[in-house]
Design a protein that fits this description.
Layout lengths: L1 H12 L2 H11 L5 H6 L6 H17 L3 E7 L5 H17 L2 E8 L26 H7 L4 E4 L2 H4 L3 H5 L4 E6 L4 H7 L10 E9 L15 H12 L3 E5 L3 H4 L10 E6 L13 H6 L2
Parallel strand pairs: 1-2, 1-4, 2-3, 4-5
Antiparallel strand pairs: 5-7, 6-7
């Protein structure tokens, strides 16, 4: 553990941008757009994902979006997502609803080798449900197994179209269940949904690959859905002012048959001419 702390400290010292980011995060000033561009958030992946969803919704003329975290555990991510949602709503004039899906009892029993039993155990990441509820202000917890709560999600909450999904459920089997959110009716989805997958990059001993874990769940989803694909956002790191490890874990769900998929959301004609 001490070695890990030393290693992190050395990386910070060798990267002045990260030092500046750390100080700026403790004293957040400036517009949301600027801080998002420079990763001035504890979870810049969440900030980017929600921002992109809000921008798309704005271009499509939609007044509200939903964002969801699958795998809440202690709640740090959901609390951060809640704060980001408030800032995005103010910055882009789009209402943002926040949902957190979790069993509330930690990881379930491992199903088979695809759930990576050599790195996960039943009961990991148990949630103190009441304690977390007391720390939330806007986010809604959806407690229970995903395969049981997702079928009644829309009838229970009537959510705005889903714009960003963070998947941190660790297991292959649980990721399969989480990806079923993209089987919701079109009116509950944006035509392109930004996604963050927490467990496609991890510790050295895991050796993530497309035959196990989250990557396998994504492969199978794509194979089973001819007109929907969950794919990496290629070139994201090259477009960021400060490339970071999380860029590799950002994906987007493309829903080719969505009634709004083909609607133009690029620069207006005058701006396009300036680029020629």
């Amino acid at each position: 553990m001490n070695g890990d702390r030393v290693s992190r400290a050395m990386r910070l010292l060798n990267n002045p941008a990260r030092v500046v980011q750390g100080v700026w995060r403790r004293h957040p000033v400036g517009s949301f757009e600027l801080r998002c561009r420079l990763d001035i958030f504890e979870r810049p992946n969440y900030a980017y994902g929600v921002q992109q969803g809000a921008i798309l919704a704005k271009e499509l003329g939609l007044p509200a979006i939903s964002v969801a975290e699958f795998g809440v555990a202690g709640g740090r991510g959901l609390i951060e997502l809640e704060q980001i949602a408030r800032e995005v709503a103010q910055a882009y004039d789009v209402e943002v609803e926040v949902y957190g899906f979790d069993r509330g009892k930690g990881l379930p029993e491992v199903t088979d080798y695809r759930d990576l039993p050599y790195t996960w155990r039943k009961g990991y990441f148990e949630m103190d449900v009441e304690s977390l509820k007391s720390r939330l202000t806007d986010a809604r917890l959806v407690i229970g197994d995903i395969d049981e709560t997702l079928p009644t999600f829309t009838s229970t909450y009537g959510p705005a179209p889903l714009a960003f999904v963070a998947v941190d459920v660790d297991y292959y089997s649980s990721t399969v269940d989480a990806l079923k959110v993209f089987d919701l009716d079109d009116k509950y989805l944006l035509p392109r949904v930004t996604c963050y997958f927490d467990d496609i990059v991890g510790e050295d001993h895991v050796f993530q690959n497309k035959y196990v874990g989250e990557l396998l769940a994504i492969e199978e989803f794509n194979a089973a859905h001819e007109r929907q694909k969950v794919v990496p956002i290629h070139g994201l790191a090259a477009k960021r002012d400060i490339p970071a490890a999380w860029n590799e874990s950002m994906y987007a769900m493309h829903h080719f048959d969505h009634p709004l998929y083909d609607k133009y959301v690029g620069p207006d004609p005058d701006q396009q001419q300036l680029r020629l």
